[in-house]
Structure formats: structure tokens, C-alpha cells
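Narrative of activities, Objective 1.

The group set out to show that a structural description can be obtained from nothing but a protein's sequence at a throughput compatible with the screening campaign. Below is one input-output pair from the validation batch, recorded exactly as produced.
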Amino acid sequence: MADITVASKPTKKSKSVNIYNKDKKELMDIILIIFLVLYGLLIIIPFYNVVVSSFLTQREFLERSLILWPNNPTLESYATLFSEGRIFVGYRSTLLLLATGVPVNMLLTMSLAYGLGQNDLPGKKIILMMILFTMLFNGGIIPMFLVMRQLNLTNTIWSVVFASGVSTFNFILMRNYFMSLPESLMESARLDGASEWKILFRIILPLSKPIIATILLFYSVGRWNEWFNPMIFIRNPDLTVLQLVLRSIIMDAQMARQIQAQAGAIVEVDFFADGMRMAAVLVTMLPIMLVFPFLQKHFVKGVMVGAIKA
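Output recorded for this entry:
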């Protein structure tokens, strides 16, 4: 005779436990939403203040203590900023650095990550340890400057390009992603007579769009914000990068503000120093902000896959 199993009815205690867990989850969701909203305001409010201040006049800035939006928006700060010509020199030099530096970064990182991702590479562990060692220690800026001067690269854009050719962090992400791909794809290509470069460019890279977009964004943002190496290696004013132009504009604005504060009404400056400074900040960060949304989907996927695979 077959056994008959009778399902027991949920007791009142189990129902109360489920209701308690549900209420607890809803409370944590509310706390998390409040925290994220406050954190978002901490990011949005300073950015909004920069945007509003760039459209203010000096008179309105001094008369009003709390400004949500200017009563008489003006483009005087932007007109003064672009009339100087320094900002165009900065854009030209930074775009030149992007056009030369990012392809070099990507080529070196992809080839290094693919080579050190092969299991049968002789001395792979030693090479990896030497590369990871650079994350903790480096030779410093003086040996780097001496090397660039000996190679006659100082005062050229190539000194900045080769000073940071490969990022160890980006290399690790890309290598981990390459190692997550099926080994059988590369083995079958080798059996068909494909070279390693052909495997890299015809098989590996088409399957690695997320990590390529991620590393491309990392290198692009890094090159766009680069200022220390150009300040050390370049003395030609025609090669001043955008961040150094922004630095000089901010310093000039601060100096003008100090002159106004010390001299009072005796000395008048023909531009709004704070407004020009905010306009310069907005102009320099806006292009990279417009690029990020198009790469965000691949960026998140690439970081997750590249960070999980060991």
C-alpha cells in the first residue's frame, strides 16, 4: 500500500517570522534609499553650484547669499575664458595626448595581457611578480626624468606618452578577462596555422569588447586628467595640457581676487574671477562626462568579469 504524505499547514509562528523578515527587508530598503539619495545630493549640489556660478555676474554673486539660479544669466565668464586663447592650446595638447597615448596604452596592455595569459609561457610567474612589484615600488620621478632626457624626449609629447605606457591595474583586469575565454578557441586557431598576433586581433579582441571599453575609458580619463608628467617633462607653452591651463586660470583668478580684497575699490578687475574659474572647471570636465554614458554598459560588465577571474 502506497504511503500518503500529507503536507503540513504553515503555523502561525512561521507566518509571523515571514512577516518579520519582510518588514525588516522593507526597512533596510528604505534606509538604503535614503542613504543613496543623500550621497547623490553630495555629488549633485557641488556640480550644480559650479554650473550656476559660471553664469553669474560679480554683482549678483556678492549681493545674494543663496543662489538657486541667476536672475540675469550671462556668458561673460565663458567669453573671457575663450578670449584668452589658453584654453584652445590646452584642448589641442590634450587631444594630441589622447590620440597618441591611448593607442599606445591599449596596444601595450593588450599584447602584455595576452602573452602573460598563456599557461605555457616560460618564466611567466617571475615576470608577473616583477610587474606586480611596480604597484608597490617605483624608481621615482628623477630617474624617469633622466631617462627621458637621455632619450631626447623631454619637451615633447612622447615623454608623457611613454612615462605611463602600461597601468598594472588595467593589465591585471585585461589579463583576467582573457583567461576567462575558452582555451579551445585559441588551440583550434593554432591548429589551423594562425599566428599569435592573428589570434589576438581576430579571435580574442572581438570577444573582449566589454573589457576593451573599460580599459579604454580608464586610459582616456587618465590621459584627459594628466598634469603631473606634462608639468615635469614639458616646458613648451604650445604643448601645455588642459589641466595645467585650468591650474593657471585658477591661480590667476585667485590672484585677482586677492588684489580686489586688498585694494578694495581702488583696483577693479575686468572679469569675475570666481565665475571664470567655475567656467574653466565646467569646460574641462564636460567632454569626458559626455563620453562616459556611451561606455557605461560595457564598463560595468568588463570590471566585474575582469575582477572575478583570478
